[in-house]
């Protein structure tokens, strides 16, 4: 599979998931219909989105790692799939929730070759390939902000920080893309034990890296060795090169 095929598949997933969710009333979206493989309740919106995405992707020779069903398939290309990142927002009509896909030639993030995030509420499309990162077809780059007096997305601030603004939107994939396109200067999620799973963040990480971002854990360790499996956990510090160094000092 190449980048063009990954983009075609991602767009097919996004189009069909958006169509299905648009037709679902909010009251229906928020119904609990089971428990996901990640141990959290599955809402009707999650189930509909995943069923559609998996039906499209499993036609290919891929291994899918997804929130509700776990690992599906045995193909050589691995896909970290979050069919609905931002379920709380989606079930309440808050327009920040996405479908997220990251394609890799192995079960490691370092071998990723394509990332895709689509805001199902607004229609904004982010993707990245070997040529760079794009928002709605236009190339994007991360902010050049060097000062800690910056605009930050951070989960959850447990002390006073010198940031100009702090925000949480409830969709890590989308938030990493907000960082990638320069809307925010950094993204930080260093909750104890790591609360993000690989399918939450892999596509957003790939997009942000291709937009010039530096993304590590809270010790400065590269995330390339992270696995595409259900057990993997991530802590993330993302910024441009210069600001990233200051953030690591700040959060010590």
Commentary on this structure:
By secondary structure, the protein is an alpha+beta fold. The protein has seven helices and 17 strands. It has helices spanning 3-22, 26-29, 44-57, 87-90, 172-180, 198-210, 241-250; strands at 32-35, 41-43, 62-66, 70-72, 77-85, 98-104, 112-119, 125-129, 132-135, 138-139, 151-155, 165-167, 186-189, 196-197, 214-216, 233-234, 236-239. The strands form four sheets. Strands 4-3-5-6-7-8-9-10 form an eight-stranded mixed beta sheet, with helices on both faces. Strands 12-11-13-17-15 form a five-stranded mixed beta sheet, sandwiched between helices. A hairpin with a 5-residue loop joins strand 7 and strand 8 (125-129). Helix 1 runs antiparallel to helix 3 (44-57) and helix 5 (172-180) runs parallel beside helix 6. The longest helix is centred in the N-terminal third of the chain and has 20 residues, at 3-22.
Which descriptors would you attach to this protein?
alpha+beta; 7 helices
Number of helices: 7
- Main sheet: strands, sense, barrel: 8 strands, mixed
Radius of gyration (CA) equals 17 Å
User: What's the number of extended β-strand segments?
Assistant: 17
Low-confidence stretches: none
- Overall shape: it is globular
Structural class category: alpha+beta
Q: Which secondary structure elements does this structure contain, and how are they paired or packed?
A:
Layout (H helix, E strand, L loop, with lengths): L2 H20 L3 H4 L2 E4 L5 E3 H14 L4 E5 L3 E3 L4 E9 L1 H4 L7 E7 L7 E8 L5 E5 L2 E4 L2 E2 L11 E5 L9 E3 L4 H9 L5 E4 L6 E2 H13 L3 E3 L16 E2 L1 E4 L1 H10 L2
Helix pairs in contact: 1-3, 5-6
């Amino acid at each position: 599979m190449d980048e063009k095929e990954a983009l075609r598949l991602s767009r097919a997933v996004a189009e069909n998931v958006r169509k299905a969710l648009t037709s679902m009333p909010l009251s229906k979206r928020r119904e609990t219909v089971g428990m996901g493989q990640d141990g959290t309740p599955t809402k009707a919106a999650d189930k509909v989105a995943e069923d559609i995405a998996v039906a499209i992707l499993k036609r290919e020779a891929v291994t899918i790692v997804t929130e509700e069903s776990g690992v599906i398939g045995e193909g050589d290309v691995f896909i970290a799939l979050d069919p609905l990142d931002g379920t709380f927002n989606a079930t309440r009509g808050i327009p920040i929730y996405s479908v997220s896909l990251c394609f890799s030639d192995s079960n490691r993030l370092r071998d990723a070759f394509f990332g895709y995030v689509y805001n199902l509420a607004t229609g904004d499309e982010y993707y990245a390939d070997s040529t760079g990162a794009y928002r709605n077809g236009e190339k994007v780059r991360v902010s050049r902000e060097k000062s800690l007096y910056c605009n930050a997305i951070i989960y959850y601030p447990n002390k006073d920080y010198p940031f100009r603004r702090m925000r949480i939107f409830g969709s890590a994939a989308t938030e990493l893309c907000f960082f990638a396109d320069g809307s925010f200067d950094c993204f930080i999620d260093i909750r104890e034990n790591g609360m993000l799973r690989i399918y939450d963040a892999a596509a957003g990480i790939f997009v942000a890296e291709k937009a010039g971002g530096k993304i590590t854990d809270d010790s400065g360790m590269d995330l390339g060795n992270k696995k595409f499996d259900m057990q993997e956990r991530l802590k993330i510090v993302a910024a441009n090169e210069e600001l990233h160094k200051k953030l690591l000092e700040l959060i010590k």
